[in-house]
Amino acid sequence: MALNVGVIGAGALGTAIAQTMSENVDELLLHVRKQDLCDDINNTGYNTQYYPNNKLNENIKATTDINDLKKCDIIFLAIPSSAFRETLKNLKEVLEEETIIVTTAKGIEYPSLKSMGDLISEYFDENYVALSGPNFASEIMLNQPTITNIASRKAENSQKVKEVLSTKQFKVKIIDDIKGIELCGVLKNINAIANGICEGMNINENARYSILTRGFKDTIEIIESFGGNSDTAHEYCGFGDLIMTSTSSESRNHTLGILYGQRLVIDEAASGIVFEGKNSIRAVRDICENNNIDSEIVNFVYDVIIERIAPIKAFNKLWENIE
Ligand SMILES: NC(=O)C1=CN([C@@H]2O[C@H](COP(=O)(O)OP(=O)(O)OC[C@H]3O[C@@H](n4cnc5c(N)ncnc54)[C@H](OP(=O)(O)O)[C@@H]3O)[C@@H](O)[C@H]2O)C=CC1
Ligand SMILES: O=C(CO)COP(=O)(O)O
């Protein structure tokens, strides 16, 4: 394929989608932060930090030099949302405005309450595409069957991104709701934490799945309040990712919730693990307040994670108010 494609972020997701797309392009540029990891990838063919047992395809070339991305037609940002603005500023120095930027991050900027798409459009106009779905990176890396949704403001951009991403195993469905797709990714993390907290406290399944049902309804309400389409909540990026992340032990957000539910304190910053849901809870609560949405699930997660209210007390309040 003639398109030049780059991925920024050689973590779990960046490496996995690089591997997928390398089936479709002549050369895939993978931008890595650390020189030693870059050397490992180029010299051994392994991402020794994230996937020490999975050989990378030979046409994946790692670089630490952002200037190498100049020639790319499409660049995927597979980094935490907290790193987006800084990375976009750096990219703006070297890229043409027409470069398509794809966000894979399921987070939101605080206190601006901007989505990752909003941030990209500050630097690269409307040339962005959002990707989201029930997509554990570890499974993508193993080339296991996966579907994702993408959305953008320009149909031709979605089409190009679909072309570089699609393989026999990795399916891509374009939807027409850029706001909704991003909100789904953010909100499912909050629900995953909520369910994790309940699981950690050994709350019964009748209650847990009622809470998940309520979380799904709140997701629809929030999407609609942003002018998004409620159908998006029924997509892979909506229902699919919500259920998967809220119930799977593979999810970092779900696991974080379990730890809080068990009142086990970990040093989240020192762990180096990306907990997007934890980082976006303040933003989601502000979004609800600004739009007069009273989400008991969002309040529950805020109470436990930010206010550090005892999980059982927070749960009792949630249960009293849920209907
Ligand atoms: N993992 C998954 O299954 C999925 C993840 N996502 C989303 O993708 C995004 C990335 O997640 P994931 O790949 O799992 O995270 P990882 O922690 O596995 O990887 C993060 C990558 O970003 C780099 N990075 C971290 N901080 C910065 C920074 N300040 N500046 C530049 N680069 C930075 C890391 O570099 P270094 O290694 O040097 O720290 C690493 O390459 C998240 O928003 C997540 O929600 C979406 C779908 C699935
Ligand atoms: O978004 C994901 C899968 O779709 C990954 O979820 P976690 O960040 O909770 O691990």
UniProtKB/TrEMBL annotation:
Substrate binds at residues 106, 252-253. It is an enzyme of class 1 (oxidoreductase). Sn-glycerol 3-phosphate binds at residues 106, 133, 188, 241, 251-253. Its EC number is 1.1.1.94. Its main location: cytoplasm. It is found in: Cytoplasm. Residues 177-315 form the Glycerol-3-phosphate dehydrogenase NAD-dependent C-terminal domain. NADPH binds at residues 33-34, 50, 106, 137, 252, 274, 276. Keywords: Cytoplasm, NAD, NADP, Nucleotide-binding, Oxidoreductase. SUPFAM superfamilies: 6-phosphogluconate dehydrogenase C-terminal domain-like, NAD(P)-binding Rossmann-fold domains. It comes from the Archaea. Residues 5-156 form the Glycerol-3-phosphate dehydrogenase NAD-dependent N-terminal domain. NAD(+) binds at residues 9-14, 137, 252. The active site is at 188 (proton acceptor). GO terms for molecular function: glycerol-3-phosphate dehydrogenase (NADP+) activity; NAD binding. GO terms for biological process: carbohydrate metabolic process; glycerol-3-phosphate biosynthetic process; glycerol-3-phosphate catabolic process; glycerophospholipid metabolic process. It catalyses: sn-glycerol 3-phosphate + NAD(+) = dihydroxyacetone phosphate + NADH + H(+); sn-glycerol 3-phosphate + NADP(+) = dihydroxyacetone phosphate + NADPH + H(+). It holds the Pfam family NAD_Gly3P_dh_N. One of its GO terms (cellular component) is cytosol. Belongs to the NAD-dependent glycerol-3-phosphate dehydrogenase family. Catalyzes the reduction of the glycolytic intermediate dihydroxyacetone phosphate (DHAP) to sn-glycerol 3-phosphate (G3P). PANTHER family: GLYCEROL-3-PHOSPHATE DEHYDROGENASE, GLYCEROL-3-PHOSPHATE DEHYDROGENASE [NAD(+)] 2, CHLOROPLASTIC. This is Glycerol-3-phosphate dehydrogenase [NAD(P)+]. The lineage of its organism: Archaea, Methanobacteriati, Methanobacteriota, Methanomada group, Methanobacteria.
